[in-house]
Write a structure and sequence with these properties.
The chain is 36% helix and 17% strand. With 162 residues, the protein is α+β, with helices and mostly antiparallel strands. The chain has 2 domains: 77 residues, Roll (Ubiquitin-like (UB roll)); 74 residues, [2Fe-2S]-binding domain (DNA polymerase, domain 1, Orthogonal Bundle), CATH 1.10.150.
Protein backbone atom coordinates (compact mmCIF):
# COMPACT_ATOMS: atom_id res chain seq x y z
CA UNK A 1 0.00 0.00 0.00
CA UNK A 2 1.34 3.43 -0.88
CA UNK A 3 2.26 5.86 1.87
CA UNK A 4 1.27 9.53 1.78
CA UNK A 5 2.77 12.43 3.69
CA UNK A 6 0.24 14.29 5.78
CA UNK A 7 0.45 17.37 7.93
CA UNK A 8 -2.28 18.35 10.33
CA UNK A 9 -2.87 20.11 13.59
CA UNK A 10 -4.35 18.06 16.42
CA UNK A 11 -5.42 19.85 19.59
CA UNK A 12 -3.23 22.81 18.67
CA UNK A 13 -0.07 20.78 17.96
CA UNK A 14 1.34 20.31 14.48
CA UNK A 15 1.88 16.71 13.35
CA UNK A 16 3.56 15.44 10.23
CA UNK A 17 3.62 11.83 9.30
CA UNK A 18 3.00 9.08 6.81
CA UNK A 19 -0.27 7.28 6.32
CA UNK A 20 -1.44 4.56 4.00
CA UNK A 21 -4.18 5.74 1.65
CA UNK A 22 -6.82 3.63 3.43
CA UNK A 23 -5.79 4.33 7.04
CA UNK A 24 -8.74 5.71 8.95
CA UNK A 25 -8.37 8.99 10.78
CA UNK A 26 -9.53 7.30 13.99
CA UNK A 27 -6.71 4.77 13.68
CA UNK A 28 -4.18 7.49 12.82
CA UNK A 29 -5.17 9.51 15.89
CA UNK A 30 -5.03 6.50 18.21
CA UNK A 31 -2.10 4.53 16.77
CA UNK A 32 0.21 7.10 15.19
CA UNK A 33 -0.45 10.12 17.41
CA UNK A 34 -1.17 8.16 20.61
CA UNK A 35 -4.35 9.98 21.61
CA UNK A 36 -6.67 7.23 22.76
CA UNK A 37 -9.61 9.37 23.87
CA UNK A 38 -11.24 8.96 20.47
CA UNK A 39 -12.99 5.62 20.72
CA UNK A 40 -13.71 3.25 17.86
CA UNK A 41 -16.94 1.34 18.22
CA UNK A 42 -18.84 0.22 15.15
CA UNK A 43 -16.40 1.39 12.45
CA UNK A 44 -19.43 2.20 10.29
CA UNK A 45 -20.25 5.72 11.53
CA UNK A 46 -23.34 4.56 13.40
CA UNK A 47 -22.33 4.81 17.07
CA UNK A 48 -20.65 8.23 17.20
CA UNK A 49 -17.91 7.21 19.67
CA UNK A 50 -15.20 8.33 17.22
CA UNK A 51 -16.54 11.86 16.64
CA UNK A 52 -13.92 14.60 16.44
CA UNK A 53 -13.90 18.16 15.15
CA UNK A 54 -12.30 18.76 11.77
CA UNK A 55 -11.99 22.49 11.20
CA UNK A 56 -14.67 23.02 13.85
CA UNK A 57 -17.24 20.56 12.48
CA UNK A 58 -18.11 17.26 14.18
CA UNK A 59 -17.08 14.35 11.95
CA UNK A 60 -16.99 10.57 12.36
CA UNK A 61 -13.28 9.79 12.28
CA UNK A 62 -13.97 6.13 11.42
CA UNK A 63 -15.47 7.26 8.12
CA UNK A 64 -12.63 9.64 7.25
CA UNK A 65 -9.27 8.63 5.85
CA UNK A 66 -6.24 10.22 7.47
CA UNK A 67 -5.10 11.54 4.07
CA UNK A 68 -8.42 13.40 3.76
CA UNK A 69 -7.53 15.31 6.92
CA UNK A 70 -4.24 16.58 5.47
CA UNK A 71 -3.96 20.32 6.13
CA UNK A 72 -6.84 20.44 8.60
CA UNK A 73 -7.17 21.30 12.26
CA UNK A 74 -8.55 18.49 14.41
CA UNK A 75 -9.86 18.66 17.95
CA UNK A 76 -10.30 15.44 19.89
CA UNK A 77 -11.95 14.94 23.26
CA UNK A 78 -8.55 15.57 24.85
CA UNK A 79 -8.79 19.20 23.68
CA UNK A 80 -11.74 19.96 25.96
CA UNK A 81 -9.73 20.03 29.20
CA UNK A 82 -7.37 22.96 29.59
CA UNK A 83 -4.22 22.86 31.72
CA UNK A 84 -5.38 19.66 33.40
CA UNK A 85 -8.72 21.21 34.38
CA UNK A 86 -11.97 19.71 33.12
CA UNK A 87 -14.12 21.90 30.91
CA UNK A 88 -17.55 22.95 32.22
CA UNK A 89 -19.09 20.31 29.96
CA UNK A 90 -16.84 17.57 31.34
CA UNK A 91 -17.53 18.76 34.91
CA UNK A 92 -21.27 18.61 34.22
CA UNK A 93 -20.97 15.03 32.94
CA UNK A 94 -19.08 14.13 36.12
CA UNK A 95 -21.48 15.91 38.47
CA UNK A 96 -24.68 14.66 36.81
CA UNK A 97 -23.63 11.05 36.18
CA UNK A 98 -23.61 11.53 32.41
CA UNK A 99 -21.30 8.61 31.92
CA UNK A 100 -21.40 4.98 32.89
CA UNK A 101 -18.89 2.73 31.15
CA UNK A 102 -17.45 5.77 29.34
CA UNK A 103 -17.24 4.22 25.91
CA UNK A 104 -19.64 6.63 24.23
CA UNK A 105 -18.50 9.61 26.31
CA UNK A 106 -15.87 11.07 23.93
CA UNK A 107 -18.35 11.23 21.06
CA UNK A 108 -21.11 12.52 23.32
CA UNK A 109 -18.84 15.26 24.62
CA UNK A 110 -17.79 16.37 21.13
CA UNK A 111 -21.42 16.42 19.91
CA UNK A 112 -22.51 18.30 23.03
CA UNK A 113 -19.62 20.75 22.64
CA UNK A 114 -20.66 21.38 19.04
CA UNK A 115 -24.25 22.01 20.15
CA UNK A 116 -23.20 24.39 22.92
CA UNK A 117 -20.90 26.32 20.58
CA UNK A 118 -23.87 26.94 18.30
CA UNK A 119 -26.68 27.17 20.86
CA UNK A 120 -25.87 28.58 24.29
CA UNK A 121 -29.31 27.77 25.72
CA UNK A 122 -30.62 24.53 24.18
CA UNK A 123 -33.90 22.94 25.15
CA UNK A 124 -34.09 19.32 26.20
CA UNK A 125 -35.47 18.45 22.77
CA UNK A 126 -32.56 20.23 21.04
CA UNK A 127 -30.07 18.34 23.21
CA UNK A 128 -31.74 15.02 22.43
CA UNK A 129 -31.67 15.82 18.71
CA UNK A 130 -27.99 16.85 18.86
CA UNK A 131 -26.92 13.55 20.44
CA UNK A 132 -29.36 11.37 18.51
CA UNK A 133 -26.58 10.02 16.31
CA UNK A 134 -24.62 8.73 19.30
CA UNK A 135 -25.35 5.37 20.86
CA UNK A 136 -25.13 4.70 24.58
CA UNK A 137 -25.91 1.25 25.88
CA UNK A 138 -25.69 2.11 29.58
CA UNK A 139 -27.50 5.26 30.64
CA UNK A 140 -30.69 5.52 28.63
CA UNK A 141 -29.53 9.09 27.81
CA UNK A 142 -31.39 10.72 30.74
CA UNK A 143 -28.26 11.70 32.67
CA UNK A 144 -26.41 12.63 29.50
CA UNK A 145 -29.16 15.09 28.60
CA UNK A 146 -29.20 16.47 32.17
CA UNK A 147 -25.42 16.88 32.00
CA UNK A 148 -25.54 18.87 28.77
CA UNK A 149 -28.32 21.11 30.09
CA UNK A 150 -26.32 21.66 33.29
CA UNK A 151 -23.25 22.54 31.24
CA UNK A 152 -25.27 25.11 29.31
CA UNK A 153 -26.29 26.72 32.61
CA UNK A 154 -22.67 26.70 33.82
CA UNK A 155 -21.50 28.33 30.62
CA UNK A 156 -24.27 30.96 30.78
CA UNK A 157 -23.29 31.76 34.38
CA UNK A 158 -19.63 32.07 33.42
CA UNK A 159 -20.51 34.36 30.50
CA UNK A 160 -22.61 36.61 32.75
CA UNK A 161 -19.84 36.78 35.36
CA UNK A 162 -17.25 37.81 32.75
Amino acid sequence: MSMHSISLTINGKKFEGQAEARKLLSDFIREDIGLTGTHVGCEHGMCGACTVFIDGVGVRSCLTFAVQADGTSIETVESLAKDGKLSPLQEAFWENHGLQCGFCTPGMLICAEELLRENKNPTEQEVRLAISGNLCRCTGYHHIVLSILAAAKKLQGAAQAA
